[in-house]
């Protein structure tokens, strides 16, 4: 079957059936000889204005296993290609922290609970990390486990707030035990997003933002230029 793409934005050419072969091997715990990827359905996983520092795709991989079709839902996160904004994101070291967190830290924290007979998860299972053909990670789609994204403008109700705080406390406890057993976390986790080494890049980005806002304010109303001058002053 041909690959079908129902995205409103272009789908990168590296999202192919071949890209997901090792993902499906891990997800289904089957060798390549026992399945065949027959179709991909790819669409954006976020809406315009969601302000993520990655490009996210929701992918449904149709796999034929022993003559029967199986649909495997996945999330693909990749670095964007946005010129200076891309340089800014890289200077923040966001993606390396994220890949290490999903690929190493969270599984290690979950293992601490598993060793004590408790099943605790802190995020989606990471099925693939790669730097070629692009820097990306592939995660299970939590919709498969009936999770839904809360409306960020409405917030959470009391039951979900308590659930969240309980899991956050479990995360903090496990992270402290892991540090005691294995020593300090990698240096990339010790540095905040806005580090001194990225000052020049942040200032350059901020100037672009300020110039843009100045232009918008200046044409906003009769007094727009006045407010624009206050903003930059």
TrEMBL record:
Residue stretches making up the CHK kinase-like domain: 137-233
Domain of life: Eukaryota
InterPro entries attached to this UniProt entry: CHK_kinase-like, EcKL, Kinase-like_dom_sf
Residues spanning the signal sequence: none
PANTHER family, sorted: CHK DOMAIN OV1-RELATED, PROTEIN KINASE-LIKE DOMAIN-CONTAINING
UniProt name for this protein: CHKov1
Origin species: Anopheles darlingi (Mosquito)
């Amino acid at each position: 079957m041909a690959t079908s793409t129902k995205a409103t934005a272009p789908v990168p050419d590296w999202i192919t059936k071949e890209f997901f072969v090792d993902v499906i091997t891990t997800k289904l715990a089957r060798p390549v000889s026992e399945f065949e990827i027959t179709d991909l359905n790819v669409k954006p996983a976020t809406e315009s204005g969601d302000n993520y520092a990655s490009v996210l795709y929701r992918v449904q991989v149709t796999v034929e296993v022993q003559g029967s079709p199986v649909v495997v839902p996945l999330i693909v996160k990749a670095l964007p290609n946005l010129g200076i904004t891309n340089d800014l994101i890289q200077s923040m070291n966001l993606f390396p922290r994220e890949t290490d967190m999903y690929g190493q830290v969270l599984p290690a924290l979950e293992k601490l609970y598993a060793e004590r007979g408790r099943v605790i998860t802190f995020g989606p299972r990471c099925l693939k990390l790669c730097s070629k053909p692009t820097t990306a990670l592939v995660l299970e789609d939590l919709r498969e486990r009936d999770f839904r994204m809360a409306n960020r403008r409405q917030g959470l109700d009391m039951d979900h707030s308590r659930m969240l705080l309980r899991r956050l406390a479990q995360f903090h406890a496990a992270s402290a035990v892991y540090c005691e057993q294995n020593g300090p976390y990698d240096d990339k986790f010790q540095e905040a997003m806005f580090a001194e080494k990225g000052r020049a890049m942040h200032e350059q980005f901020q100037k672009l933002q300020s110039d843009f806002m100045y232009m918008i304010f200046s044409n906003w109303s009769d007094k727009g230029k006045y407010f624009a001058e206050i903003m930059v002053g």
